[in-house]
Structures are given as structure tokens and as C-alpha cells.
UniProtKB/TrEMBL annotation:
One of its GO terms (cellular component) is membrane. It is a multi-pass membrane protein. It comes from the Eukaryota. This is Lysosomal dipeptide transporter MFSD1. It comes from Kipferlia bialata. Lysosomal dipeptide uniporter that selectively exports lysine, arginine or histidine-containing dipeptides with a net positive charge from the lysosome lumen into the cytosol. Could play a role in a specific type of protein O-glycosylation indirectly regulating macrophages migration and tissue invasion. Also essential for liver homeostasis. The chain crosses the membrane at residues 28-47, 53-75, 120-142, 191-212, 232-249, 256-275, 281-302, 314-336, 342-366.
Length: 397
């Protein structure tokens, strides 16, 4: 129930959070949604200490509103500040630090709770969120400092000389048009295909992680610590290797081809886990490698197929599609597991992975015929900087 509340609030909020970030700015998004995270976790921790289930759910809901949009804001900041050959590397570094929290949770949370108490472990996580808020404040100060220097540079620009020899007045640079909600209608087919691929692939990973520990204990005889350690390998690989894969992707491109290979490996891994005697350690290693490859490649596709002013909205839509689909798959997996068993659950994951393979193949064909950006080596994206300026001028006219 707690995960459902978190997931549902996350899904609903990101539908509009990205638009708010594009409209009001990254500083607004960072401060606002990190505040939601801190408040939600504080309520959750206090409710856990007092064993108040209603307020536990309320805290989880507020936390969900903040975290999903904070992730969107984080990715939007990356997309605005890192372009071309740096984009996938930047996303890889973000993923690496994000997965650090997952790794710490898998390997240390139960030990901390056992050595102290569940309440202490929960409050420790809340304290980490306030520590994260300090970094948002630092980002805010850096952002304002950059804007101040940008204004100083503009004021010092040399103005062109008029015909009579006197300097002409310097015209301020026109600001890019803010996104409008109806701009979503103009999103290209490639964007929607990338969003669906992301949802399909992540639906093979996160719902599996949710049941993997129980499966290894019930079906393979693992202890609780062994099962947690094995499942944590997925995030451990992502934490260490995402930056290196991001750098490789920036160099060679081939984002969709790498995603296609990763989805195929994931499909085979789910078959191996249930229908062969292969060790679960091998399976989680394969899934971890696939997850690392896809996470580093697919998210860097989004800024390539939308305009810069639309990045936050685009990322929020992809996140909403992903969260909504994962919520549905979690429910389906729970029903199938209760009524049939783990082999049938594995078939669900295999079917989703196969659909991901098919859709990625279709997207490769579409990209080759229309823009050759997602699977090519062109790092500028569909909308070049000059085209962005031209479109902005047309909008203002």
C-alpha cells in the first residue's frame, strides 16, 4: 500500500511538474520539490515512530510528489548544461550517484535497523534528504551567479557603429519563448516512441527488483542477506559503470542499437532465471549490465528530439508514462504471483522485454528514415541551435 501511494502520487504530479519547471525555472523546481521530499519524509518518519498508519501514507504521498519531479528537474538541468559529446556522460554520472542511494539501501539499511531500530534507520534517511537540500541551495547560488555574470557580459558587448559614427544602442537579446501547454501536441513521433521504450524496459527491471529477494529465498534457498546482496548487484553495476558507458555512447552514438541489445539480453535473463539451473548471480549480473546500458542511452535520447525549452515537460511525460506503466505491471505481477507462481511472472517480464525489442527495432527504422539522430553519431539533435533561434523569432513576430 505504501509503495502504491508513492507511485500514484509520483505519476500524477510529474504530469504537470515538468511543465512547471520549464515555465518557472530550474531553481524553482529544485527548491520546491526538494522541500516536498524533506517534508514528506519527516512526516513519514514521525508517523513510523508513533505507528500512525494514516500519516505514514500521507508522508509517502508528499514524498512521491517531490521525488518524481525532483528527478525530472535534475535531468532537465543536465540537458540544459551539457550538450553534444557530453550529454550521455552527464546522464551516466547522474544515474551513478542516484544508484548510490539504492546500493546503500540494499546493503546497509537492514543492518542499521537491526543494530539500532527501524525508527532510527528511517530518520537517518530523512536526515540525508536535508543534506541533499543543501546541494540544491548551492545549485541555486551558482545559478544566480551565472545569470549575474551573463548580464554583465551582455552589458559590456560592443555595439555596432552607426552610419554617422556614433555607437548604436545595444538591443537586449530576446529571451526564448516559454513553453506553452499546447506545444506538447507538436512533439515528434520519435519522442513518443522513446517514452514507450523507456516504460517497457523499466517495467522489466523495477517490478523484478521488487520480487527478486522473495523469489531467491523461496525458490533458490538464499538467505535474506544473500538475496538482498544478489538483487543489489543490479544497482551496484549501474553505479560504477554508468559514467563510462555514457562516455562511450557520446563517442559512438548507437543509442537505440545498444537499447535493443540490452532488451534482448534482459529477455533471455528472465527465461534463464526460472527455466534453467543457471545461478541467480549470473542472471542479476546480466540484468544489471542491461539496465546500465539502457539507462545511460535512452534518457539522453529525449533532449535530442525536443526543443531546449521543452526538455522539462518532455522528461516529465516520459517519467509519467514510465511510472504509470510500472504501476500497472506491479499490480499484474502481484496477481499472477498469487494465482500461479514465479514461472508465469517470468513470462510476463519476457513478454514485456520482447515488446521492448520490437518497439526499439521499429524506432531504429523510423529514426533512419526521418532524422538519423537517435541511432547515429549526430550529437546536435533534431532541433539545432540556429533552428531554435529561428523558431523563437517566428513566435515573437
Amino acid at each position: 500500500m505504501m509503495y502504491s501511494v508513492y507511485s500514484f502520487s509520483n505519476f500524477l504530479s510529474v504530469c504537470f511538474g515538468g511543465y512547471a519547471i520549464d515555465k518557472l525555472g530550474h531553481v524553482f523546481g529544485g527548491l520546491t520539490f526538494q522541500s516536498f521530499v524533506c517534508v514528506g519524509l519527516s512526516i513519514f518518519s514521525a508517523a513510523c515512530a508513533n505507528k500512525n498508519y494514516l500519516w505514514i501514507l500521507i508522508g509517502r504521498g508528499i514524498y512521491g510528489v517531490g521525488l518524481g519531479n525532483l528527478t525530472v528537474c535534475q535531468n532537465a538541468v543536465v540537458s540544459h548544461n551539457f550538450k553534444g559529446k557530453e550529454l550521455a556522460l552527464a546522464f551516466g554520472l547522474v544515474i551513478s550517484f542516484s544508484r548510490l542511494g539504492s546500493v546503500l539501501n540494499f546493503y546497509f539499511s537492514s543492518d542499521i535497523a537491526a543494530a539500532t531500530s527501524i525508527s532510527f534507520a528511517v530518520w537517518l534517511g530523512t536526515a540525508m534528504s536535508f543534506f541533499s537540500f543543501l546541494f540544491v541551495v548551492v545549485f541555486t547560488l551558482l545559478n544566480r551567479r551565472r545569470d549575474r555574470y551573463a548580464c554583465m557580459d551582455e552589458s559590456m558587448d560592443v555595439s555596432p557603429v552607426s552610419e554617422v559614427g556614433a555607437p548604436s544602442p545595444v538591443k537586449p537579446k530576446a529571451a526564448g519563448r516559454k513553453i506553452k501547454l499546447e506545444d506538447v501536441k507538436s512533439f515528434r513521433l520519435e519522442f513518443w516512441l522513446v517514452g514507450c521504450i523507456t516504460a517497457l524496459f523499466y517495467a522489466c527491471i523495477f517490478p523484478f527488483v521488487a520480487i527478486a529477494t522473495d523469489y531467491m529465498q523461496e525458490e533458490r534457498g538464499f538467505t535474506e542477506d544473500e538475496a538482498s546482496s544478489a538483487t543489489g548487484v543490479i544497482y551496484l553495476l549501474s553505479m560504477f559503470f554508468s559514467p563510462f558507458l555514457g562516455k562511450l555512447i557520446d563517442r559512438i552514438g548507437k543509442r537505440l542499437l545498444l537499447t535493443l541489445i540490452a532488451a534482448s539480453v534482459t529477455m533471455c535473463a528472465h527465461v534463464m532465471l526460472v527455466f534453467t539451473p543457471v545461478s541467480p548471480w549470473v542472471v542479476v549480473f546480466l540484468i544489471g549490465c542491461s539496465y546500465t546500458v539502457t539507462a545511460s542511452s535512452i534518457w539522453s535520447c529525449v533532449p535530442l528530439v525536443v526543443r531546449l525549452r521543452e526538455v522539462g515537460t518532455a522528461l516529465s511525460l516520459v517519467t509519467a508514462i514510465q511510472m504509470g506503466f510500472i504501476s500497472c505491471i506491479n499490480a499484474i505481477v502481484g496477481i499472477v504471483k498469487e494465482k500461479t507462481g514465479y514461472p508465469q511472472v517470468s513470462l510476463v517480464f519476457c513478454s514485456i522485454a520482447f515488446a521492448c525489442v520490437v518497439l526499439t527495432s521499429v524506432t531504429i527504422v523510423v529514426d533512419k528514415r526521418r532524422c538519423q539522430v537517435l541511432n547515429g553519431t549526430d550529437k546536435s539533435g533534431i532541433f539545432s541551435e540556429n533552428e531554435e533561434k529561428g523558431l523563437t523569432a517566428q513566435d515573437e513576430a
